[in-house]
Amino acid sequence: MKKAIIATIVAGFLSTGLVAQTHTIFVHGKSGKNHNGTSKTDVNNYWGSDKNTVSGSKYFVGYNGKTDPRTYGSARAQTNLTTVLTQRCRGSQTCKIVCHSAGCYATEFWLANLGGTAASKGFNITKVTALASASGGSELASALNGITFGFGGNAMDKALRVGTARPAYNHNNTAGVSVFQVPGYKSFFGPNIILPGRDDYAVAYHSSCAYNRSGGLDKCQNSLTKKEGIWPFRKKVTYKMFSGHHRAPSVSVGGLNRNHGQLKADGWR
Description:
single chain, alpha/beta, Rossmann fold, 7-stranded mixed sheet, two-stranded antiparallel sheet, 8 helices, 9 strands, 25% helix, globular
């Protein structure tokens, strides 16, 4: 009888494991297209063939790529992110989030404003893989705003200004979910003049490595101290990653030799 009871319990656990589902949730960044959708379809093909580097079940958070990633409404990032995560990351379902550029801004904003840890709110989110994260903003957006006296660019451009993105939410609050940064340094002349330190031609390491302040950096690590300023008034300045953020284990401290778009293929990390 005792063996029969144990067998029944084991069978129950195995049965639960069989019905459990694990998904990868893709969240795209800035785009000139409307990718509105909350299904298995990559609307308007933002991810292209790069989505195939990730195996298993996939769902796509799509929205109007010209809109502020912090906003709710029709074809907006926060509404569609909430829909997909509620449908696919609760109960017997778990998920990993893969975000790119401003998609990481949207994802972290959602986590920071969840009102508790993801687990306490019933969400089973294993981790976030942040590809070329723009959660710290981009100097390119700041420069556009400056040269047009605040009139240039769409809502996404305005949200991506460094002075807007950094104070937009508490970057240290990831709702208990680990965010793994994947930065790139394959830049080219032009953006390189505006972006400080290493960059992928769209965002600099202070953003893609989730540092707690903006500046010119060439390494992605938990803490980095460097001398800054004009001699003889130079002083040591320490940069630290926000809490809950880490460099992806498969990425070296120097980052990857990839540009902003090429990093979309690294969602498997």
